[in-house]
Amino acid sequence: MKRLLAAAVALIALAGCAADEPTMTPATQPAVAPSVPEDGIALNMEFAPAGLSVPSGAMVVEEIDQVNNITIVFSAPTGAELAAYYRRTLPELGFTITADANNSLLFEDAQWTGGFTASGAYSALTLRTDWE
Fold it and tell me: For the structural domain made of 39-132, what CATH number should be given?
């Protein structure tokens, strides 16, 4: 019985030594946020990269705003118009467009990787960052 009790105490002690679960923190933001283009509207998302915007008149039907992932689903304007907007504005925010075909984009900066794609009546922009 003493051995069983000693084993149980040792097991509990080891469980207490387990590493804490990592926490996620938002990606760092620049001291001065980049300006939003005249034909854009600033996003009111807590975790989006500074300066990220949507075109004026965009119809956002869904958004996800998490510390490691933001996603915006659009029903307007067209995928081609949105792709043109992000083709122009993402580099101004420091993103490098790494792929561009069929109104779809892949892009990245030092903290985020992202994609834009259009299909039929809907388009989506998503950005993801790793654990900090």
Answer: 3.30.310
